[in-house]
Amino acid sequence: MIRVERLHFAYGRQPVLRGLDLEVGPGEILAVLGPNGCGKSTLLRLLRGVLEPAAGRVLWQGREACRLGRRAMARLAAVVPQSPQVPFPYPVRELVAMGRFARRAGFFGATQADRRAVEKAMALTDTLQLAERQVTDLSGGELQRVLLARALAQQSPVLLLDEATSQLDLDHRLEIAELLVRLNREQGTTVIQVSHDLDLAAETSHRILLLAGDGMPVALGTPVEVFTSANLRRAFRVEVKVERNPYTGAPRAYPVGRGRGDGGGLPRVHLLCGGGSGGELLRRLHLAGAEISVGPLNRGDSDQELAAAIGLETVLVESFCPVSEPALQAAGELCRRAGALVVAPTVWGPGNLAVLEIARQAVERRIPVLLVDPRADRDYTGGRAWERLHAILRSGGQVVPDAEAVLQALRRED
Q: Where is the ABC transporter domain (predicted)?
């Protein structure tokens, strides 16, 4: 029914979703999980055709979502939004009845079928007792249930839910989850739900799409296939233990932390970064309790300001100036005192190319050197930086994909 082909999307220059392939068949419950900012809600808007992909396609029965009209899309899919806002004091029953507009012919009034659909939707969501109240007087959880009733009244074959149970108390959250499963089982309703409730998603979903913070797909499969410690660590950047629910057999995730805050056995680390490339590394290493030095960095660089705020030993270079020989020597001395050198995913240009000499010397001294996600498209030196990075790798440097992998590698080194 729904096919996503090599989907890419960005807000300005910031990529949100990258290279997503997905098929959702009729009668399937799919949960979309991942950290904040990974593109979960954006994916729902792309599925609805509200946003147009930067590359790739979203197809509904062979038709592009962004080419379908609003009424045609409403007949295919009903939506329950993440942050409900209803600015006008509609009576609850009237708001739920708005879900029937896509089913009406022209401007004719409500039919008996419309009224039956509204009553049934309100009964299923436990909102009949709210029927005469104004929506502006409802609590967040009550309004969430009313908006779900509106979506059910629409009687579309697909439900798109953006954290639709996030504001509900436990009993209503479980009721809604059971309702979605029942609609799927008895009426064949397809459900695509964005959620932060990993355990509930694992209990109710046929498949799970897990996204990383950079919008890259981590895993797609059954809850058992997706819920592994490695997958969840990559997506959420925390250590997670996965066990089976003894009553249902579904997997359950238990966060066990990012690591010990007393240093966790980490060696002293010198970090080569700049231009914001070291932000996450600095925070993660500091929170893990590592002793860190940084530089050379230009004054005013975002990494320099973060290092200063944390109180790290930093080799400074004046703003907009290339790295000087004294700065290289000072940074080299800090590196010699460290137990490991980490090279952030930095953009390399003529002004900072010489910094790679510190990494070369570290490898020669058998200091462990970790290169975080090195890529040729960050080289603005005509290939010289890329050649030096390759030379460091040939001499014993190690490539790691992200900050979590850096922490794991450092613990092994120690």
A: 2-238
